[in-house]
Specification:
Layout: H1 2-19, H2 28-31, E1 35-40, E2 54-61, E3 73-77, E4 80-85, E5 89-95, E6 98-106, E7 112-120, E8 125-135, E9 138-145, H3 148-157, E10 160-165
Parallel strand pairs: 2-8
Antiparallel strand pairs: 1-10, 2-5, 3-4, 3-6, 6-7, 8-9
Length: 167
Amino acid sequence: MKLAFVLLFCTVPTMAQTSSIPAACGNIDAGYKDYKIKLDKSEHGITAPEAGKARVYIIHDPGSIPLIGYPAVAVALDGTSVGANRDNSYFTFNVDPGEHHLCSSFGGAGAYFELAHFTAEAGKTYYFRTRIIYTDHKFMLSLSPVDSDLGEYRVNVTPMSVSTRVH
């Protein structure tokens, strides 16, 4: 009986969290392991948005947490996967003007996800940073906008992540 109670106690929070994954995440939480990621260490710099679009950079800061087999951090925009980072890296994409919802995830089945939204304006560039934080004996994921000065600097000194979903 004690074992059944312990199993129920341990699985209910996971089931509750999995069933409440926001629409902004789409199916990325189930597919974070399904990314093949190469880090391109050649110089790239800031790229202007396509005409009539805005540009978004997702920069991953691994912090100082020593992780073996550092996990991919997948990102979705409005429920559709747009890429993934690992280690110290970034990727970029264009978006149409208007309100957008970002979701970053790692850990599978919604174990860790974070949300942010923004309103894109044509011709503008937006920078967001993901970080895995270890606090109070647990992992947390952070997704937050960053100042353009910091964003530009990080893009100029960080490898570009080239990610492909492999189903």
